[in-house]
């Protein structure tokens, strides 16, 4: 279905779920289909890339090659929505080194705890990602190949995340307990917040741990903000580059009522619409970029839960279009913008032999941020401002909006929520411990 044309290729948003869904499984190391948590770290030199296999970074006794860095940077560019230019590739190569180092440390910790991940589990995770993007694994693999991205770097990422999630759960599963009192306290907080305006937030956080680093971190925050402005997907950038514990979940912070946020953030957040993000904000700990994922008015369901259907008309449009065709497109778009009924829009598209697709009903929050922003206050039955892509102008119209009835989460939902919060804090604490004693030599 072509309505997916602007949706995010949701590799990284799916990653955090994989470790949780697989967390209770553990494989014995004697299976032929298994290998240790340590992914292959040495690459074969290609005939046109003599430097790719050179060691770039040493992490304890393991290495990260220049090829590893290039492969991961290409993956980030493909999934983030940032244009793949030589300059941007170089920028992202510098940015991905941290996540590659973190993955090596996580894999080493898992190996020490005798946590083993099978190739079959990684393959299963890949299939889930492909399914979320309406593809088969074979189709996704071919897409990687067509775009010049080595799918092994995604497999390495998956292996590290599954390994680390399982390591934490097996080590601390027995001590993470959620009491009935904790559940009731959380439920009361949610009930009290129902009378307030609430904001669902995501973050990219960069720490400033010494005055000497202030200028460099400010520049890095500005660079990330610029990439977001140029179309980079927030959750991908958060997962790759944020230094907060929320990075594992794509920067997801949760819901906050007015007065419950960091005072440095709230004045900026309340000015946002769903899908918008702030400029870098200086806080006591460093810099944050905040995205408003969703919001809700008092005693109403979140806006993102609104069920929506829409039509989109794909009009061929590229840089080499003739002046005559340009004028024709402009005239036809103006005609479409006068239409007030989605059926008549489809008829007009057929008249002009343009492709027209109708989306299935879906929650607003499942749409890409640009579409959420576009549809947020859009009335039903009105053509919206066209969206430009490399090959098309896309004219959209909201066909229906259905606001759901808001329900408080169940006690099981709250238990799972609190459990994930505790595991997240433990994972961050334990990782900081092992990272602080790791030997890391960057040769780049």
TrEMBL record:
Alphabetical UniProt keywords: Chaperone, Isomerase, Periplasm, Rotamase, Signal
Q: Name one GO molecular function term.
A: peptidyl-prolyl cis-trans isomerase activity
Q: Does the keyword Isomerase apply?
A: yes
From the record, give the transmembrane residue ranges. none
Q: Which Gene3D superfamilies match?
A: 3.10.50.40, Porin chaperone SurA, peptide-binding domain
All copies of domain PpiC, residue ranges: 196-294
Task: Report whether Chaperone shows up as a keyword of the record.
Answer: yes
Concerning SUPFAM superfamilies, the annotation shows: FKBP-like, Triger factor/SurA peptide-binding domain-like
For region Disordered, the annotated ranges are: 23-51
Q: Which InterPro entries match?
A: OMP_Chaperone_SurA, PPIase_dom_sf, PPIase_PpiC, SurA_N, Trigger_fact/SurA_dom_sf
Chain intervals with Polar residues compositional bias? 30-41
Q: What is this protein called?
A: Parvulin-like PPIase
Native organism is Candidatus Finniella inopinata
């Amino acid at each position: 279905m072509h309505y997916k044309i602007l949706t995010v290729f949701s590799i990284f948003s799916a990653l955090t779920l994989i470790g949780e869904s697989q967390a209770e499984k553990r494989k014995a190391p004697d299976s032929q289909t298994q290998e240790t948590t340590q992914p292959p770290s040495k690459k074969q030199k290609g005939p046109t890339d003599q430097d790719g296999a050179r060691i770039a970074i040493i992490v304890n006794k393991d290495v990260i090659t220049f090829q590893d860095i290039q492969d991961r940077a290409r993956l980030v560019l493909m999934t983030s929505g940032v244009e793949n230019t030589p300059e941007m590739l170089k920028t992202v190569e510098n940015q991905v080194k941290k996540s590659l180092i973190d993955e090596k440390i996580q894999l080493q910790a898992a190996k020490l705890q005798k946590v083993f991940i099978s190739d079959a589990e990684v393959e299963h995770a890949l299939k889930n990602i492909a399914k979320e993007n309406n593809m088969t694994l074979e189709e996704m693999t071919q897409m990687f190949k067509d775009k010049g991205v080595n799918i092994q770097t995604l497999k390495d990422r998956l292996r590290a995340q599954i390994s680390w999630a399982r390591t934490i759960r097996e080590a601390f599963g027995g001590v993470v307990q959620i009491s009935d009192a904790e559940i009731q306290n959380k439920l009361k907080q949610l009930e009290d917040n129902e009378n307030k305006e609430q904001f669902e937030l995501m973050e990219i956080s960069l720490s400033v741990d010494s005055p000497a680093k202030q200028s460099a971190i400010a520049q890095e925050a500005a660079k990330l903000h610029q990439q977001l402005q140029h179309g980079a997907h927030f959750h991908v950038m958060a997962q790759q580059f944020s230094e907060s514990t929320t990075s594992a979940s794509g920067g997801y912070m949760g819901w906050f009522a007015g007065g419950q946020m960091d005072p440095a953030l709230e004045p900026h957040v309340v000015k946002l619409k769903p899908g918008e993000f702030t400029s870098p904000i200086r806080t006591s700990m460093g810099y944050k970029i905040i995205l408003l994922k969703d919001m809700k008015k008092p005693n109403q369901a979140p806006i993102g839960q609104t069920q929506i259907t829409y039509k989109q008309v794909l009009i061929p449009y590229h840089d080499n279009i003739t002046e005559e065709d340009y004028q024709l497109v402009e005239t036809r778009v103006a005609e479409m913008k006068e239409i007030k009924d989605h059926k008549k829009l489809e008829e007009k598209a057929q008249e002009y032999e343009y492709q027209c697709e109708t989306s299935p009903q879906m929650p607003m929050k499942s749409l890409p941020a640009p579409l959420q922003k576009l549809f947020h206050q859009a009335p039903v039955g009105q053509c919206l401002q066209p969206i430009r892509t490399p090959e098309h102008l896309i004219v959209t119209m909201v066909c229906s909006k259905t606001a759901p009835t808001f329900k408080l989460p169940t006690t099981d939902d709250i238990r799972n929520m609190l459990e994930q919060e505790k595991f997240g804090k433990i994972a961050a604490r334990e990782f900081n411990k092992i990272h602080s004693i790791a030997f890391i030599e960057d040769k780049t």
